[in-house]
Amino acid sequence: MSSEQEQITAGFTRHKLKSIKTLGEILREHRETVPMSLDKVARLINVEMKYLQALENNDYANLPAEPYVKNFLKKYSEVLGINVETAALIFKKEKMVFDNAQKKKEKISKFKNAINFLFSPTFLRIVLLILVALGILIYLGIKVYNITKPPELVIADLPTSFSTEEKSLTINGKSESEAVIKVNDRQIISDKNGSFNITLDLQKGLNIIKISAKTKHSREKVLYYQIVLNEIIK
Description:
Elements: H1 3-7, E1 8-9, E2 12-13, H2 23-33, H3 38-45, H4 49-56, H5 66-80, H6 84-118, H7 121-148, E3 153-155, E4 161-164, E5 168-175, E6 180-183, E7 186-188, E8 195-201, E9 205-214, E10 221-229
């Protein structure tokens, strides 16, 4: 294939694109054309030579604060005869690209660090300790609840509210064997199974009966009953 055929393919002419020069390359080429050493430029514009080197090498990570860079970039451009506004615009664009790239790197680095930490022996030990601590707390909580919860108290065949013409009432109930049982705040005796039986005399009108049960460390279980003794009309 001839050189002309190489240049023209399928009706299109191919042109070799020139790479876009960075600000650092532009500054270096103009400085070397003058010619002028970095040391001389540094003395002329009163700036540390390491910052000029960083600028020409596009090393934005080692440049000082942006306002300071803009200040000496203006002086540097004036010394080299470069358009100050053009240099400032190129710097702004390149600095923006650099900052965005740094932010992405930081996000990726933080994500990698987080993943590494999640799978690290240190994190696994922390999780294990937390689980053990939670297990102990749950166990203790259940134990405390079981110790302090009110005891069972069951009264057989006794509505909470009713009326009667009978002058006495027999109450049959059951609680835990170690519970202290009281009827209207008077302690009564239960058998070894916690069962108890008591007969109460009713007064004419409304009778309120309070039945309670409590173990040594538990909260008190209380039941209330309202019984109305009706007057018998003869």
